[in-house]
Amino acid sequence: MKRLQVDFVAPSLWRLPVAARARLFLVTLALLAFFIGMAILWQWLRLDQQVEAANAALALARQQVLLQTPPARVSRVLSEPEIIAINSAIGQLNTPWPALLDAFESVATPDIALLQIEPDHRRRLVKGLAEAKDHQHLLAYLAALGSTRPFAGAMVSKQEINEKDPTRPLRFLFEALLDDGSAEVASGQPQEEP
After folding, report:
1. pTM of this prediction?
2. How far apart are alpha carbons 155 and 141 in whole angstroms?
3. According to a count of CB atoms within 10 Å of the terminal CB, is the N or C end of the chain lower?
């Protein structure tokens, strides 16, 4: 018969058989993996909550910025002075400067000194200041200017003799009316582009 060993004291871990130690190692490893997985999951949930909180804060900040900025006006009624200013600017942009300057250059003579020109878009005319040697040159200049395109006529609005100059030229203000092209349309002739 075989001898029995009876030990009434609980065996230590190191005295367990190999299979029992392996099972205990696997159970410990499984518990450790479980707790590491739970820690990772907990950290992931915390980061997800922080990202959601940051997105909510950004959305709130955007909403506050939108509430603070005044809304863009879709349609705006312009006041009368604004309309006049806009129309004046459009008129200045639409001034046919090449045609006007060509007309003044074509009627230039040594007897007339053109000092200033200024278009008046509302009245469709060009105002000017010039000096002539005498009345005959003044009238000849205005007749030539009034018959040159893009003008439909020219007339003196004010004249005076410049006493300060030793040659005593005749200084005059004139207005040259711009041709609207209706005469050419009525006659069937094509209009020239300005």
Report:
1. 0.48
2. 10
3. N
